[in-house]
Design brief:
heterodimer; A: mainly alpha; 9 helices; 0% strand; B: mainly alpha; Four Helix Bundle (Hemerythrin (Met), subunit A); two-stranded antiparallel ribbon; flat
Chain lengths: 228, 322
């Protein structure tokens, strides 16, 4: 049970050593795919920063404002929701552009995303409720995502697409669908009898999709430049 | 017939048995920790590190089995009886990873990973061994899972027994209601049996990922990055599932309480979005200089993990003990 030759062999057999890419290697241009990934990371980073600021504020508020939970908490939640809502919308928009990009043309994706945003905005204006507009937008995004997953599993996109890993791509679509369902529950279904099954569905989609995306991907070295 | 005195007597006997067995286990665990530290520190002995970790894992597993026995006894003994009607409402199914047992489960999980790790085992294992030792020693010296088990649970349950035995029906009923609420919405809920262990598994995997990331930063080899990624993706799945299943429970159990956007929830969200960002950015690892971004996100993600843990004890809120 000590360090056995098997361990050393396992180390050696599985590990192909190579230096990390240095500054003089690799493409320097910022393409569409890479831009989407940067946007995703930036939006996630913003949400992370907002969470940190929110934590620091609650820490300060609990210590400095007597009875803050009764007097200031509700306003704090409204402010945090208001800041987060456009970021979450932007994330879903980026998803809408990112996941199905192997199936549809870029122009079509941008057009569909803009159309969905317009419908969501119209829903918010008509009902005078940002939450309703957001729910409409998320529901439309969910429908598009379902179509993407079905098309992916059906093998749409031709041979070039299939060689990138159909299961991995379907996993990516499923986990993004899970994120949309999750956001939809938080926005619109918290008091609905559908809350628990919808949460469970999002959990299954997120974890199942992640597992497929991570483990079904064809590993040609460490280089994957698709599916942000 | 159940009475406060009969329950207290049975409870004291179970705790005495746990303490007597656990007192010995404490010493054996600390001895195993010392052995692992010595083996990890002396290069000539390091060939036996895996063996010493197996010993530590074995001892910790025996301790865990003892704790399982203790929790089974709690299930049998700790009944709640309505002091007005005399009807028993049920028993406490106390999860195995709360209060004084949290660090212990962490130690057990990290020991499992330290024993089972294969890629870069010779380099990662010493770090994980030291962490497992720190957690195990911390669990024994500060958590006291055998000699002072579950202090919050016993404070609650003993206050209930005391109120029930006092003969004051109104006070007894009030304390019963509080205990019953904790039983239904905390101790016995399915969420408490699923959410924490999923997160512990993910945290253990992220520790391995973090160590591999540090090695990548120092040695600038892509194989360390690959190892870090493999552990991160392994940890990301239970992290995501654990957080998602936590949400409906929070909405129901903390209805009307301050929980959304409070410290622990915020930091958990921050950790999740940073690991998501890391896994996304990693898709473009081969771009010029991108490994630095990937490494920075991996380190930040782990810092968020540590802060999430610390926040529980520092920032007040529903999901906090501050």
């Amino acid at each position: 049970m000590s360090e056995t030759p098997d361990d050393a062999a396992a180390d050696g057999a599985m590990i192909a050593e190579s230096p990390l890419p240095s500054n003089d290697r690799g493409p320097a241009t910022i393409g569409w795919d890479f831009s989407l990934m940067l946007a995703t990371v930036a939006l996630l980073g913003f949400l992370g920063l907002q969470s940190l600021v929110g934590t620091l504020y609650t820490w300060w508020a609990y210590r400095s404002i007597p009875g803050w939970e009764q007097t200031g908490y509700e306003g704090f939640v409204l402010a945090m929701n208001a800041v987060a809502a456009p970021v979450v919308i932007a994330l879903v928009v980026v998803m809408g552009l990112c996941v199905p990009k192997r199936l549809f043309s870029r122009t079509m994706l941008v057009g569909v995303s803009a159309g969905m945003l317009a419908v969501g905005a119209a829903g918010a204006v008509i009902t005078e409720s940002l939450a309703t507009g957001l729910a409409v937008y998320l529901a439309l995004s969910g429908l598009i995502q379902v179509a993407v997953v079905v098309l992916t599993l059906a093998g749409a996109g031709g041979l070039a697409y299939i060689t990138e890993g159909r299961l991995a791509k379907a996993g990516s679509g499923l986990l993004h669908l899970g994120f949309i369902v999750f956001a939809l529950v938080m926005v619109a279904l918290q008091k609905s009898p559908l809350m628990m099954p919808a949460f469970m569905l999002s959990g299954v989609l997120l974890t199942g999709g992640s597992a497929m995306s991570f483990y079904a991907r064809q590993t040609r070295g460490a280089l994957h430049v698709h599916g942000a | 017939m159940l009475t406060p005195v009969s329950i207290s007597t049975a409870l004291d006997a179970a705790r005495a048995t746990l303490a007597s067995v656990g007192g010995v286990l404490d010493v054996v665990i600390l001895a195993a920790c010392a052995a692992v530290l010595v083996v990890a520190a002396v290069p000539q002995l390091r060939v036996h590190l895996k063996t010493s970790l197996w010993v530590l894992l074995g001892v910790l597993s025996v301790g865990e089995l003892v704790l399982v026995w203790f929790h089974a006894r709690l299930w049998q003994i700790c009944q709640l009886v309505d002091p007005i009607t005399g009807q028993a409402s049920g028993s406490f199914a106390v999860p195995l990873w709360i209060e004084s047992e949290k660090l212990y489960v962490w130690a057990l999980l990290v020991a499992v990973i330290a024993v089972g790790i294969r890629r870069h085992a010779s380099e990662l294992r010493p770090f994980l061994a030291v962490l497992a030792v720190a957690l195990a020693a911390g669990a024994v010296l500060f958590g006291h899972p055998f000699t002072e088990p579950l202090p919050d649970f016993f404070a609650l349950y003993e206050s209930y027994l005391s109120a029930w035995g006092s003969g004051d029906t109104i006070m007894g009923y009030q304390v019963f209601q509080r205990a019953e609420s904790s039983r239904l919405y905390f101790y016995n809920t399915w969420y408490m049996w699923v959410h924490p262990p999923l997160l512990f598994v993910s945290y253990g995997a992220f520790v391995a990922s973090f160590v591999a990331t540090l090695l990548m930063i120092v040695r600038r080899r892509s194989s360390y990055e690959e190892t870090a990624y493999r552990w991160a993706r392994f940890g990301y799945i239970p992290l995501t599932l654990g957080m998602v299943v936590g949400m409906p429970w929070a909405i129901i159990a903390w209805s009307g309480e301050a929980w959304w956007w409070t410290g622990k929830v915020n930091m958990s969200l921050m950790m999740w979005v940073l690991y998501t960002a890391y896994l996304h950015s990693r898709l473009y690892l081969r771009r010029r200089g991108m490994w630095r971004v990937v490494a920075a996100l991996a380190v930040l993600s782990f810092l968020a993990l540590v802060l999430t843990y610390v926040t529980t004890y520092v920032v007040p809120g529903a999901h906090s003990v501050a």
